[in-house]
Amino acid sequence: MTGIWTRCNNCRRILYKQDILDNLFICPECNFHFRLSAIDRLNMLFDLGQYELVDQNIYPQDPLKFEDSKPYAARLKENREKTGLPDAVLNAVGTMDGIRVVISAMEFAFMGGSMGSVVGEKITRAFERALAEKIPAVVISSSGGARMQEGVLSLMQLMKTSAAIANLENAGIPYISVLTDPTTGGVTASFAMLGDINIAEPNSLIGFAGPRVIEQTIKEKLPKGFQLSEFLLEHGMLDDVVERRDLRSYIINALRLFLNQPPPQ
Ligand SMILES: [Zn+2]
């Protein structure tokens, strides 16, 4: 968002930008949740907004020398410059109400949060860190799915991340998945739906294929609200829909429950 004023994507009202910033990027008029950057997510979730970034300096390769409307290498460079990030996810460790956790937060502004080898590797490393340190893992998803420019190397990440979660599960270490707008494709088909609890922000698009592709395939109109978090909750695909302003306290309560660790008196 640039300038002092902005328009809400949902209610179309003109809003003073500072009002949105002060309100966790939620429209004060209609409760629309704007997309957050990975950094904003981490700042919002950790105690006092303090954390240590880990698993930095992992950069994608371009083994296919892939080129669509422009070369993959050029696209990567452009997205790095735009976001200041090496790829579409950040891993961080810190505490939430004193509980040490590792959080992976995806960055949608980096190539639509697409999952290539780096995103898969970093998410896997977050789970491995959780296992080694015996601390809970939280992943905040925001992704268009697998990164086609890396071909099968992207698809491999579905298995790799899922296997790492299985190890966590066997060790009895909690993993909370938070799905935000949008979470689709290979990310929904792997780690985003494999949490001990899977929760989502309101009105988030969550699915595998997009609604247009499904309509074209089945040649039927889809019900209203199809693939939005509230619809998915109603149909048993999610455990809860949580407002952004309650997200931190919700995760802390869930972690205390999983860890059997009542809040300090
Ligand atoms: Zn609005």
Provide a brief overview of the structure.
The protein is built from 9 helices and 9 strands.
Counting helices, strands and paired strands, the structural category is alpha/beta
As laid out across the biggest beta sheet, the strand order is 3-4-5-6-7-8-9
Helix content range: 25-40%
**Percent of sequence in beta strands:** 15-25%
SS elements, strand count: 9
Classify the oligomer.
Answer: single chain
* Hetero ligands: zinc ion
Structural commentary:
With 265 residues, this protein is of the alpha/beta class. It has helices at 17-21, 38-45, 72-83, 117-133, 152-170, 185-188, 211-218, 229-234, 244-259, and strands at 5-7, 14-16, 52-54, 89-96, 99-106, 137-143, 175-183, 197-200, 240-241. Helices cover 36% and strands 18% of the residues. The chain has a 7-stranded mixed sheet, with helices on both faces. A hairpin with a 6-residue loop joins strand 1 and strand 2. The chain starts with a strand and ends in a 6-residue tail after the last helix. The mean pLDDT is 95. Zinc ion (ZN) binds next to loops.
